[in-house]
Write a structure and sequence with these properties.
- Among the domains are: 204 residues, no CATH class; 45 residues, no CATH class.
- The chain is built from 14 helices and twelve strands.
- Helix 3 packs parallel to helix 10, helix 7 runs antiparallel to helix 10 and helix 11 packs across helix 12.
Length: 409
């Protein structure tokens, strides 16, 4: 079989990054099914880091219930429920797993009723919230639909459909009405995609495969780096190479590689069996692919640096990394938080009751950068106001120019 015969039928992808480096990936043999996506998220270092950063940061938010005008409510059934969502998990565990499973494509949470046939849309009838392991869910016909869902009767018919969930060998049929769905991208992006979303992992097949292969290559080379090959260079009559005698082979194997320094008259050539690591550039290639993965998950390098330092600082230094972290929380993590909160607000019909579920991150030390910047701004405005008043400018004009109203003054 020729080289081109071997390539025939394979999905060959070629990419070039900004540094001009090429990467090649042969598709068709990689399993990106849900079980393997979960395994990849737990074993691929770059993917694990991305999932862990996002889920950990989301879990650090404080869940609140407010009026539609933004006033905090001290007591609410959802606050009790999220504080103790189920028998095994804390609030932080529950939200972290929510984020992790959602990133695999679709996160599904079963709302467990506190009595048979209880209407779980009424939160008073809810006993617990349990995540379903995505790979154990069989949608069957549930994700199919042949017409747009517009009427109450159509919606009711869909909610009466059931998903099959198999856990520890036992299968459960769960009605859609008892399930809350969360999407990594958006549902219904493919035919028969009701309650299903693609995952960003699907777009990262080349990078994930490259990292896996580079790690494997590096590990193999590390093993071979401890192995050496000694070749006899002695020539016999008429320049013919002479085979090593058994005693010579034993002497080389027991002496040459067990001493830090050796002196010999023998004509022996010794070379390492591993490749030159610098030429392979494995770490550089892994880093390049990892950064593409972080980019897909909205994690810039400055936030990685901040995270790697243990989220150091008290949030009052205003370093570029802290400012980047604040922007990341506001513009990326907050979107996930809003999706989590809005889904539950809609599920329990909270807006019809004049309230909403929100998640707040203002308590985090790094978020104090905002307060520090605000106070610095007010201080500058106050100095301008003071200078204008000393220059005998009318107070109203001074307040307008400085940006301070009479209350702030």
């Amino acid at each position: 079989m020729g080289l081109f015969d071997w390539f025939r039928g394979k999905n060959i992808k070629v990419e070039r990054n900004r540094q001009g480096e090429w990467s090649y990936w042969l598709g068709g043999d990689s399993d990106f099914s849900l079980p393997n996506k979960l395994k990849l998220s737990l074993t691929n270092p770059a993917l694990f880091t991305a999932f862990n950063m996002r889920s950990t940061m989301l879990s650090r938010g404080i869940v609140k219930v407010q009026t539609l005008e933004g006033e905090d409510l001290e007591k609410d059934k959802f606050l009790d429920l999220i504080a103790n969502p189920n028998y095994c998990e804390s609030t932080e565990d529950f939200i972290k797993k929510h984020s992790w499973f959602k990133a695999l494509g679709t996160g599904i949470t079963k709302v467990v009723p506190n009595r048979p046939n209880g209407n779980v849309r009424n939160i008073e009838n809810v006993a617990a919230l349990e995540h379903l392991i995505p790979s154990q869910v069989d949608y069957g016909e549930t994700s199919k639909y042949t017409n747009f869902i517009t009427s109450r009767s159509q919606k009711k018919a869909v909610e009466e459909r059931t998903l099959r969930y198999k856990i520890s060998g036992e299968e459960h049929k769960i009605p859609v009405s008892e399930l809350a769905f969360f999407y990594d991208i958006a549902c219904n992006m493919r035919d028969e995609g009701l309650f299903k979303s693609p995952s960003r992992i699907d777009a990262l097949a080349p990078e994930i495969k490259n990292i896996q292969e580079a790690q494997s290559s590096k590990n193999k080379n590390l093993v071979f780096s401890a192995k050496w090959l000694a070749t006899n260079k002695k020539k016999g009559l008429q320049g013919m190479e002479v085979n090593l005698e058994e005693n010579e082979r034993t002497e080389i194997e027991t002496s040459l590689f067990n001493k830090s320094m050796n002196a010999t008259n023998a004509n022996v050539d010794v070379e390492n069996l591993a490749n030159d690591f610098r030429k392979l550039m494995l770490d550089d290639n892994i880093s390049s692919d990892a950064m593409r993965i972080f980019s897909v998950y909205d994690i810039p390098r400055s936030v990685l640096n901040w995270w790697a330092k243990g989220q150091a600082g008290l949030g009052d230094s205003g370093s570029s990394e802290e400012i980047a972290a604040v922007r990341w929380i506001q513009n990326s993590i907050q979107l996930d938080a809003d999706d989590f909160c809005n889904t539950w607000s809609n599920f329990f019909n909270y807006r019809e009751q004049g309230k909403k579920i929100v998640m707040d991150f203002s308590h985090l030390p790094v978020m104090q950068v905002l307060e520090t910047k605000r106070m610095e701004g007010i201080e500058r405005q106050a100095k301008i106001l003071d200078a204008l008043i000393k220059a005998q400018m009318p107070l109203a004009d001074a307040l307008r120019i400085s940006g301070l109203d009479e209350t702030e003054a």
